[in-house]
Amino acid sequence: MKYEVIATDGKAKRAHMETAHGVIETPVFMNVGTVAAIKGAVSTDDLKEIGTQVELSNTYHLHVRTGDKLIREFGGLHKFMNWDRPILTDSGGFQVFSLSGLRKIKEEGVTFHSHIDGHKIFMGPEESMQIQSNLGSTIAMAFDECAPNPSTREYIENSVDRTTRWLERCKTEMKKLNSLPDTVNKEQLLFGINQGGTFDDIRMKHADTISKMDLDGYAVGGLAVGESHEEMYRILDCTVPHLPKDKPTYLMGVGTPANILEGVARGIDFFDCVYPSRNGRHGHVYTDEGKRNLFNKRYELDSKPIEVGCGCPACRSYSRAYIRHLLKAGEMLGMRLCVLHNLYFYNKMMGEIRIAIEKGCYMEYKENKLALMQTASNEGKQEVLT
Amino acid sequence: MKYEVIATDGKAKRAHMETAHGVIETPVFMNVGTVAAIKGAVSTDDLKEIGTQVELSNTYHLHVRTGDKLIREFGGLHKFMNWDRPILTDSGGFQVFSLSGLRKIKEEGVTFHSHIDGHKIFMGPEESMQIQSNLGSTIAMAFDECAPNPSTREYIENSVDRTTRWLERCKTEMKKLNSLPDTVNKEQLLFGINQGGTFDDIRMKHADTISKMDLDGYAVGGLAVGESHEEMYRILDCTVPHLPKDKPTYLMGVGTPANILEGVARGIDFFDCVYPSRNGRHGHVYTDEGKRNLFNKRYELDSKPIEVGCGCPACRSYSRAYIRHLLKAGEMLGMRLCVLHNLYFYNKMMGEIRIAIEKGCYMEYKENKLALMQTASNEGKQEVLT
Fold first, then answer.
1. What is the ipTM of this complex?
2. Comparing C-alpha atoms, which of A255, A272, A278 is closest to residue A42?
3. Which of A219, A234, A333, B167 is found 20 to 30 A from A47 (Cα to Cα)?
């Protein structure tokens, strides 16, 4: 792995990362394909057409559904999905803590029940690394606890200490797995995850601790779980400076276009979020003029594309009126077209961000982009951007 | 409209039909897009990629859902769907008789209740022509009664007589509508529909009667509604010779690959059926070796495409194992890939049929194709072809 910052603008970084599955140009938005498929009938062939660099799959979902062992036998996730570009897999931790009802956290790991059939599963750092190694993703995430928000200081301190011990075990296990002869991807990378709830001092101390572990990259986790945007930005302001500048940084599960613009300004390289695909499936589409709800009657006879000038497969061929009709009739095609547009919108924005950093005008670009979206909202032309 | 038979082989016809929206090469299988969308997230751009010549939309569904008036205001169905090739619309009759519960048939037309919200609707020949004129389809179908099967001889006689009177009204109305200055498609064609249940003599007499009306084409309706395949073939054997050879013939709502092969042998030009899209959404896919059920565990690790050598968007990129995973996980993408494959399979078979007729080896082609599919089924390799 080679990570090279090729330009900076304030705290914003523009980097070039070489992986076993090709180069990633950052800042980048990863497109979320939960069970090895983008929801909304979007295929990996489609992802290539809409400019996706990195696909993100969920370890927990693939483990409880089709099974990572089967995918390993098939030759790994890349072969399974027919995707030759980078894939990041999460650790499963977030789903273990958010989807399963009853669960028991011990030093060894977590015992929980599958949300599909209720059967008991144990997952700890070694299990998470083994599953991700079976999947053969480009980047594996460390197994951590994403603590509930709000939590007491005491809970967070204990949780973060355990997450650190788990990270050490993840690193040891990953090294072992990458050295085995029949491992799918022997160059699998490991990103550690910073936690600390909304306690700035715990966040910074934890960032210092994990920075010394020489990992391939560092994520800020446990955000976008109910805290305000201002709180999230404050935590990034204090935490990111304590993470290595010569390693990629990843803000997990974030977010709206505005969140991403602010995250980049604070030194973040990687983002992922279900918003563009989930909103798309509900007919909510992103544009430079804010978000449109295509169910709105005002689009009934509107022959314009979702966004005038957009080059996505939906905007190249179909009108707002037609897509509205499809959504109202419950036709899957309506969802597919909206999801394609939204992912294209995010991917295109990341390209604009990279160019703005290279040109040294990122703050200006960010303010203009935010103002444009906000003005449209204030004028009541569009819904408020979320 | 210009319809020219360019080759025959036995009763099989290979024709060339010029319409306001381009040429149709027959025999042709029309791809069904009920509410102006192919179910399974398939767009008109996709249809072009899989070799679709004619899209079929349902008058009843578009009338009760988005509304034909709105589509007319938009500029017609072609503009609405972004499809510049031929569209055939059915008359609404079939859905009026099959979907609506309570209905009242009078000489003027039928009063029934919308299956969406129960509101009362009246549809007769003039209403059906007006709706189809609003949609601006290439080919409109006459409003007829598709009588229940089985029905008494007396019921069928009365029904067929009324269908003939309705056909005369359709012809008059269509002529009037096509002459109005603001009609979407002034060259809209009208196909009449032969009825008669399973009574050969009524079928033949009705075919003789409507043949004299000099319509643009003739359909055989009221089949594939529960009668056996043998009965259907017998009715085609006696009815088709009573329809004009120099006009296109259309076997409505039919059918399986075997039904189509037998229909072509009996002089049919046009076919349509929901099987390929409906079966695709259930993971049942067509191949030259019979039909596969991709839910079958035998495909769990199968890295081959649905059909080896197939050039469809699903087979070019994805394995049986991956599509099976998608279907089992309930991911829309699984349905989309199966629907794309099935429609491609049908469209490709129609191309083979056209070439076989041109070469004068249609019967040989048909027998080989049927034997291939049947052998695979008998050997238990695949499910029985339906």
1. 0.95
2. A278
3. A219
